Amino acid sequence: MSFKLAENEYIAETYQVIVVGGGHAGCEAAAAAARLGVNTLLLTLNPESIALLPCNPSIGGAAKSVLVREIDAMGGIMARLADETQIQIRMLNTGKGPAVQALRAQIDKPYYSRRMHHLLESTPNLSIRAGEGARLIIENNKVCGVATAVGAVFACDAVILTCGTYLNGLIHIGGFSQRSGPSGYPAAPLMGDYLRSLGLEMGRFKTGTPARVDKNTIDFDKTEVQPGSKEFLAFSYLTKEETFRARPSVPCYLSYTNEQTHQIIRDNLHRSPLYSGRIEGIGPRYCPSLEDKVVRFADRTAHQLFLEPEGLNSREIYVQGMSSSLPEEVQAAFMHTIPGLERVKIIRPAYAIEYDCLQPTQLKATLEHKEIKGFFSAGQLNGTSGYEEAAAQGLLAGINAAASLLDKEQLTFTRADSYIGVMVDDLVTKGVSEPYRLFTSLAEYRLLLRQDNADTRLTEIADSYGLIDEERRRAYYEKKEAIEKESRRLRDFRLNSSALQALGIDAKSGLTLAELLRRPEANYEQVLQHYPPDSQLSSQVKESIEITLKYEGYIQKQLKQVERFKNLEKKKLPADLDYLNIKGLSNESAQKLARFKPDNIGQASRITGVSPADINVLLIYIEQHRRMFPVKQGDKQ
Amino acid sequence: MAQNRNLQTIAAIATPAGSGGLAVIRISGSEAAAVLSRIFLPMAEKLPQADPRRMLLGKIIEPQTKKLIDEGLAVFFAAPASFTTEDVAELHCHGGAFVAAAVLKAALAAGAVLAKPGEFTLRAFLGGRLDLVQAEAIRDIIEAKSLQALAVSQNQLAGHLSEQINLLEDELLQLLAEIAAGVDFPEDIDLLSNEQIDQRLALVNNSINELLKDAEMGRLLKEGVSCALLGAVNVGKSSLLNALLQEERVIVTASPGTTRDIVEEGFLLSGIKVVLADTAGLRVAKEEAEQIGIEKSRKKAAEAELLLLVFDATRPLGEQDKELLSLAQGKKALIIINKCDFADNEELAGQIKQPAPQIPIMFVSAKTGRGLSELKAKMTEIILGGVYNAEPKINNLRHQEALLAASFYISQAQETLQQNLPADLAAVDILSARNALGEISGRTASADIIEKIFATFCLGK
Fold first, then answer.
1. Higher pLDDT, B156 or A519
2. Which residue of A has its CA nearest to B133?
């Protein structure tokens, strides 16, 4: 080791990859790197807070559930663990189209956390160590170690920062504020200051979490019950129905605010640090605090709220929809106006938290920093919100950190192959101006990025990296073969006129079962009843077949759109292109392009502030250039 | 801004070829002032570049020999306040191909390079002065065939089309957002019903169809209409052509078969350029050249948009006449009974009407001019066929194609909604429709657009 140590620092141990932070990003990152065979350390403030769920007690939901499936398809942990620890699971958006159905599970928080800790402890090549990462050791723009607050230096070849909301964390409850991480864990001020000292572009974001209240003080009779699904549902492709059946199903409850609630909030607005200007961080527009909702949607007389259990053995109930930074006293007062909560006792008050994050436009699509080799970051530090977003980034960063040491190609995704691709492209191309959450609407090609086909899209790629085990490999290829066989059968099987008559279908004889399925009135279960296949089909196989055949026409259309998209992605922009001297680009665009150095025209077109007119100019420029300097045979493009 | 760009200074004659009172030579680029000073000697002390936007009188000279080419005016526009956003100099010299060419040659000798077709417009486009629609409009203004076609292009240049397309595009985007919001916030947002989306799409499609109707009109204005005069020999086709053109253009004699080649002439009919093709008369050919002429006539008939079938009021219906009617199948056509110098030949009209009852019949005398104005009115009616709009916004095939595509995608989306399938599936087509509209205004970046620009402006190599 040739690097310089500060006073009181000593070299403790040597690893290949070090992950700093034990949240959802850190867990997936550490596990992925270790799975690829590199010697990995997970450095966390407190091993007991590994995989903490400091906000909502649920995993999944619109768009996020596809992300969880994608994590699973690549051998990640979140999906399987959610299935093992869920206490209610249901499907959202049924009837709104095959691309947008979403699973959501209520999670037993302490159990999830404990299970993750155990899983990581039993992962080969992975060590866990308590400590606050204080600074990175960087020599010649390359990471070579991490120093902790107490002076232990861990040498390494790559580091993945996944510090979540801990960097310079500051919580607010009314007029009270305090340096703190989430859920009362200590903040980590050193790394935040260190990153700023590197001259990196940082942001300050704010998020909030609602109060937890005592289950025994709620009058559930005055609320609406929301039960979970009785049918087998799971995130992971590997989860068996037995696992689902062995889990309890605990209901959630629904209630509403009213005018009285809103009046209390309006009367106390001046006591909210958000409105008095004491919070500088930028909060997410899509996840407003209750005071935000009351102010911004003044004409609404009621807002819904969900009462969700924090765990099977916990008396704490999470009040979804009521995040607030008003004083505790006001929180209690407005709670008591809500049907069912008249006598409720608060266990933990709602709070807002401000934290430092990195502007992710400084990253490559691999999640490695553009200027510092071996420095990866993932999760909330990159300006996102949500456990799922964090976990997916962690997985990608873990794979790429390990791949860079194993001389494997770096893994990147596109907007056309996965939600991970959509998210990372948004982050590194557009950057963040508020905490980023993945939405269905952000995915242009969502009909192709469904939760039923995440494995078809990603498992073979993951396999080529050595990320998946034998069990998953077998299950995947069996499913693939079953789908192909059954699709063939449905396309080949023709119905004669008497068969059609029996089914009451008005069509020319010779209609195949596949064609029949495409009709809006037909459904696959009926087809299977009348014309069963030789062998039983799993529910996963049936789901995939029904969607791909029934919506084949739409899927084809989307594939055409993807072709167009790829045409622009294929037009490469040389890294040494002198944007400042291309005539016709607006000054703002030229500067952004020069700083950002997009890989291709498609990516350039998504940079905020680069207009389609600028893209036309670029297209003309490279086309003219191509015509003037044709690529000679044998030259590499 | 425009300086420091590694681009050559270009020059070209900006006025149309041929003789006119005046010719303009335009020079654009960072060297424009230098080029100008080498070939223009002002009468006054001041150089044009010292006093931008003011016309100055002076001598235009050959730069090496200093020989006088012409006396003329020069004006200088400093970047970026010029058409191309670069420094631009213009020399106004006397008309006539020779003088203009000599001035251009002088400019080239003084350091400019010859501009490629469309290069001034392209530079204006690259300089951010024009959007794509506007750049195309300029090309159309240059190529405009009538005053009304010019008006369409000027309309586009002013940005009226882009504005309207942007509005439609925004509405589609809004719909996409609302559909997606219902999906992303399943517990908070009331979904739009399929009927609501369908109705809003129908409104967008109506607007697109209005524009498309416009487009047909715009296309007619821009490209004109091809019209073929067909008839047996010596029924007076050429006389009719001359009567319509109101001046002698083709030889007219009494010997049958004089017009062996096809003669094309244009005239304006309600602002639309009608290209009339006078064809060889149909008959059994006596010589080979004539046979070729007759074949050409048949081909022309197949290509023309409007057929004028000419009959002779003084002769009974012959074999060739009957064949004529068969050429008109499935086409826009008019029957003209010529040589009705004093009265309509109703009897002949009756005979013609039997095999072709749907084709309107006009009685005309090319010689006396009887019935000519009625004929012109009828031709206008048939050509416009319900598409008439005094101020169309679209005359460009690329725009028309994009609108057709958008309209197609919207109907597909509507079909999905009407089948009660989830709105998210309709979103696939709504997105395609939006992208198609964006190709007109240039708000959708697409490699195809650039291909088309290169095809139109003849760039590169």
1. A519
2. A613
pLDDT digits (tens, 9 = 90+) for B306-321: 888 898 888 888 777 7
Note whether ipTM > 0.85 here. Answer: no
Q: Which residues of B touch A97 (CB under 8 A)?
A: 183, 421-425
Chosen from A92, A100, A601 to mutate, greatest number of chain B CBs within 10 A? A100
Evaluate the CA torsion angle A20, A26, A29, A35 in order and state its sign.
positive
Q: What's the gap in Å between the CA of B16 and the closest CA on chain A?
A: 27
- Say if the Cβ atoms of A623 and B454 lie within 8 Å: yes
CA distance linking residue A567 with residue A584, whole number of Å? 23
Counted across chains A and B, CB pairs separated by less than 8 A come out at 126
pLDDT, one tens digit per residue, over A211-256 is: 999 999 999 999 999 999 999 999 999 999 999 999 999 999 999 9
Residue A423 in tokens: 């998210």
So where are chain B's domains?
3-129, 137-214+394-442, 224-384
pLDDT at B351: 81
CA distance A343 to B107: 92
Q: Name the CATH topology of B137-214+394-442.
A: Four Helix Bundle (Hemerythrin (Met), subunit A) (1.20.120)
Residues A106 and A27 placed together within one structural domain of the fold: yes
User: Beta-carbon neighbour count of residue A624 at 10 Å?
Assistant: 16
Question: Is the minimum CB–CB distance between B423 and chain A shorter than 8 Å?
Answer: yes
Domain of A231? 212-353
Q: Report DSSP state, residue B223.
A: H
Cα separation, B295 vs B290, whole angstroms? 9
Looking at the complex, report in whole angstroms how far the Cα of residue A226 sits from the nearest Cα belonging to chain B: 12
Tens-digit pLDDT profile for residues A149-175: 999 999 999 999 999 988 889 999 988
- Tell me, what amino acid is at B384? L
Task: Report yes or no on A634 lying in a domain.
Answer: no
We find that the CATH architecture of domain B224-384 is 3-Layer(aba) Sandwich (3.40)
B459 touches A: beta carbon within 8 Å = yes
Predicted TM-score of the model (pTM) = 0.77
